[in-house]
Structure formats: C-alpha cells, structure tokens
Amino acid sequence: MLKIVAIMLCGMAVGFLLRKRTLRIVPKAVTVLIWLLLFLLGVEVGTNPQVIAGITSLGLEALWLSLAGLAGTLLFSWALWRWVSRKKGGDGR
Amino acid sequence: MKGSLIIVGFFILGIVCGLMGWLPSLDDNLSFLTLCALLFCVGMTVGNNTTLLKSFKRLDPRLMLLPLMTIIGTLAATAVAALGLPHRSLTDCLAVGSGFGYYSLSSILITQYRGPDLGTVALLANIIREVITLLGAPLMVRWFGPLAPISSGGATTMDTTLPIITRTSGEEFVILSLFHGFLVDFSVPFLVTLFCSL
C-alpha cells in the first residue's frame, strides 16, 4: 500500500514542478496504460477457469454491490441537499 | 461513453486471448509495473492542474462535504450489502465499493491484491455504477435533488459523467462536480489498498 501511495505522490510532485508546462502527453499515456492494464486483466480472467465458470455469479455480485452503493450515495446526497437548502432559507434572506 | 466501450473492448479482447491461449504466459510483474506507471501519470495530471485547484476556492463550504457524503454513503451501504454475500469478507466488499465508479484503477488494484476473481467483480460493479449514473441522472435529480447524480457518479464526475451532470443538475454545479470528482478520484487508490490490506 505504501509503495502505491508513494508512487502517486511522486507523480504529483513532478507534475507540480512542471506546472509551467502543459503535459499534453500524460493524459494520452494514461489512456494507453489503462487499455494495456484492462487487456492484461482480461488475459488473467481468460486463463483462470474458475473465474470464467463463475462469470454470471460475479456479474450478479457486482450488480448487487453497485446498486447498494448507489442507494447509499442517493440517500446521503439528498440529506446534504436538504440541509444546505434549509439553511439557505433560514438565513433570513 | 465511447471511452468506456473501448476499455470494455480491451478487457474482452484480453479474455479471448487468454481463453484461446494466444499469448505466452505473462510475467506477473508486467501488470504491476504498468500499474505503477499509471499511478505516476495520474499523480502528474493532478499536480499539474493548478488552475483547477484555484477555482475550488469559490465553492460553498457546506457543499464541500459532498465528497465525504459520497464516500460514507457508498461504504455504509456496501457494508450492509456485504451481509447478502456471505462468501465475501466485509473488506472485499468495501474494496469493491471504494472504486466509486473508477473501474479501471480499482479493478487493477484489486486484482493485484486479491486476484482476478474479485478484480472482475470490481470492474463490473464500477462500470455498472457509471452507466446507471449516465442513464439515471435525470430521475436522480427529480427524486433526490441536484447533488444526487454528482454523488452517484463518484470518481467520474470530473470527466465521463460531467456532461450529463451539467445538463441535469445545472451549470452552477460544474465546479462542485469537478471538486467532487477530484477528491473522490484521489481517494480511490488509498481506500482500495487500505481495504485490501486489512
């Protein structure tokens, strides 16, 4: 975990030092690296018979977890919105 | 949306190559090194973007709590949902939830720590989250207020879901959406690795 965080912080420091320049190549590099990594993840999935056999149940688990997460965010953002708009009204404006 | 389709295309291409055995067995280090390069580049784009950081000063301080609401809301609900998946540990589920729609990075990190099984769940769960936000944003605004699609968009409100948020929540929420995406995006590698190492 520390390694991952350290690498990202190093990247931020370098990006900040180079803030006078627009790093046009970096977003492109990010896109290509993501493609490569997702391809490698696919290869790992494809060569793993257990994952392939369970792909439907993995999909259902994913759906369950994402629906739950969405419900949570909707509830909490709604609560924040109610709080913010009520305070706005209560300011006596 | 087109970008997501290309990414899914690469994932499927990888599965096909793996199934057909077209590739020689790959070194495990290759994906880790690529991941390190990716994180370094992501860090660079964040550190480089000082104009974005400056525009955040104009935000209503109470609305700045929104990223926290997103994180707490997702993790609390995911923890409850974990009860429905007895074969997964709580931390596994929380790691998947901490992707906040950032499917590429979260699935890669989770594959590194927990293997391709949970990595695939993370990929699918976070793609679903982005797609539901893109499709459901108008209804979310109507039922839960203008902050709802921003919160449900999670880490993607800085890029892929920004156009739909601008259209459904309104122009005045653009800066908030950027701020939210920026912070949640940044929390993904921390939270995912944290839950994977617990």
Order of SSEs of chain B, N→C? Answer: HHHHHHHHHH
| Structural domains of chain A: how many | 2
Structural class of chain A: mainly alpha
Label the structural class of chain B: mainly alpha
Q: What oligomerization state is this entry in? A: heterodimer
The share of residues in helices of chain A is over 70%
Percent of sequence in beta strands of chain A: under 5%
Written description of the protein model:
The complex is a heterodimer of chains A (about 90) and B (about 200). Chain A is mainly α. Chain A folds into two domains: about 10-55; about 55-95. Chain A has helices spanning about 1-15, 25-45, 50-55, 55-90. The longest helix of chain A is centred in the C-terminal third of the chain and has 36 residues, at about 55-90. The mean pLDDT of chain A is about 85. Chain B is mainly alpha-helical and about 200 residues long. In chain B, helix 5 runs antiparallel to helix 10. Chain B has helices at about 1-20, 30-50, 50-55, 65-80, 90-95, 105-115, 115-145, 150-155, 160-170, 175-195. The interface between A and B is large, with 73 and 98 residues.
